[in-house]
Amino acid sequence: MDSEIGLRVDGTPRRLTVDTRTTLLDALRERLGVTSPKKGCDHGQCGACTVLVDGRRVLSCLTLAVARDGAEVVTAEGLAPDGELHPVQRAFIDRDAFQCGYCTPGQVVSAVGMLDELDRGWPSAATGTGEPELDDAEIAERMSGNLCRCAAYANIVPAVREAGR
To answer: Taking every annotated instance into account, which residue ranges of this chain make up the domain 2Fe-2S ferredoxin-type (predicted)?
Structure first.
């Protein structure tokens, strides 16, 4: 069964008709041509498909597009709408926080989302009972849903820390 939905993707309103079983990831990549979210595992285990939906991190491979009708979706492409890199994107480049680059868009979007969560004072398992602090343990915990097969974590964590300053 098909359903018509509307999304605002990287600042642009989009309307499309999708099968009700279509994931947000497939709608973005296959129907709208937005290829920065990657299809890694297609099971919500790697984080390569991470996007921001209404400001919150979401694994787009586990989210049905029809469930996000009317939502604001931001991908890695949408973080730099006028060619001006987002501070997280700049930090990833400055810190050489990628190797093959396949996971990088999901890592970057996840870092943007986690820094917002941190700014809001949302606790994590690493926070304990105090105020969240942007240290290596906090970054590792909050970014744990984003895997890098190349193991670029030694540069990803400092990049996130730098962007969070």
So the answer is: 3-79
The pTM of the whole model exceeds 0.90: yes
Cβ atoms of residues 137 and 130 within 8 Å: no
Q: Is residue 82 part of a domain?
A: no
Instruction: Report CA 154 to chain centroid distance, whole Å.
Output: 19
CB atoms within 10 A of CB 116: 14
81 assigned to some structural domain: no
Number of domains in the chain: 2
* Of residues 24, 108, 5, 15, the one with CA closest to residue 73: 24
Question: Could you give the CA distance from residue 44 to residue 83 in angstroms, rounded to a whole number?
Answer: 30
| Distance of alpha carbon 66 from alpha carbon 89, whole angstroms | 30
In a 3-state reduction of DSSP, which class is residue 8? strand
Of 39, 78, 79, nearest to 60 by C-alpha is 39
pLDDT tens-digit readout, 86-136: 999 999 999 999 999 999 999 999 999 999 999 998 888 887 777 788 999
Closest alpha carbon to 48 in 33, 37, 57: 37
Please check whether residue 86 is in contact with residue 112, taking contact to mean a CB–CB distance below 8 angstroms: yes
pLDDT for 132? 81
